[in-house]
Amino acid sequence: MTDKIPATLISGDGIGPEIMASVTTVLDALGAPFVWDHQNAGMGALENQGSALPDATLDSIARTGLVLKGPLTTPVGKGFRSINVTLRQQFDLYANVRPTQTIVPGGRYSNVDLVVIRENVEGLYAAMEHYMRVGDDPEAVAYGAGFNTRAECNRIVRFAFEYAVKNGRKKVTLVHKANILKILSGIFLHEGRRVAAEYEGRIELEERIVDACAMELVIKPENYDVIVTTNLFGDILSDLTAGLVGGLGMAPGANIGEKMAVFEAVHGSAPDIAGKGVANPLALMMAASMMLAHVGRQDLSARLDGGMKQILTTDGIRTRDLGGTATTEDVTQALLRAIH
Ligand code: NAD
Fold this sequence. Notes:
- The chain is an alpha/beta fold.
- The chain has 11 helices and 12 strands.
- A 10-stranded mixed sheet has the order 2-1-3-12-11-4-5-10-8-9, sandwiched between helices. A two-stranded antiparallel ribbon has the order 6-7.
- The longest helix is centred in the middle third of the chain and has 17 residues, at 150-166.
- The chain starts with a strand and ends with a helix.
- The mean pLDDT is 94.
């Protein structure tokens, strides 16, 4: 029996509380080892506690090092940094892991099983940008810069190869744009090749330019296994891969650091359907499954994955985003039956 594991739980904004209630109900029924420290972040926290990322939440995360997080609405307006970007940088959550697998039959692609590993703290997301004045126009030119360090390129590519080894994957594809961004993207490619050489004979190395990769993902996604890439390319490609298997309602993600891990759905707070009880809880459910595997409970993770597969395929329980009519509660109840 695993000991109890303290973890921070942030329900989030919009559909967050609805899908989080579904996930915690199922985790409880599964006997998951987590002891939740409930904390707030996002729009709700800004309204109630005066900060979109209160100190109490940051303290809890620093203490537990393990987080299940619902989507957060980033307040619009100057002076608000994305909370998600802040969390990644503050806790050095350098690897963003987004698995994509075909589960729902009858979709456009029947054979997708790949993982996008995105560098999470450098690249163009450093958002060092400003305007430059030309004549009377103070905003005539928009200027932006990014940076990639050799150390971080090494760390993220090594993470991807280690992930491949641990998860029985065969191939890692380095995705870059070093033909044009010879330095910014070149350092990633060159450092990546050095790391890959250490895995020669065990894990195959492949290289793709990002635009060719985008096209190939649409034409032949089954060619891909593990993709590792820099921040902006990873952001775009991982939404593309989510689209291959049913959209954002089916896309989980993990943000991993040396000592911390934050698990979440890839989607946002979906204000258009919030409060209607129709949100798909499965992306967050899959994130919870990744969290179980992360703490060594592969047994529970496999049971949860099996349950999700069963309700989607055998039982045909699907929310509206997947072309069905099921409510969030229908999914919860079906899953509770399936995991027993
Ligand atoms: P969104 O992902 O919230 O919604 C995009 C579309 O997908 C909407 O039509 C929505 O109804 C649908 N959708 C999303 N999740 C769904 C689910 N689980 N079930 C069914 N349908 C679902 O993107 P957006 O509208 O651009 O962003 C809304 C807010 O969320 C913004 O404030 C944004 O900053 C924030 N956001 C947060 C995160 C995060 O916390 N990780 C990620 C992305 C966006």
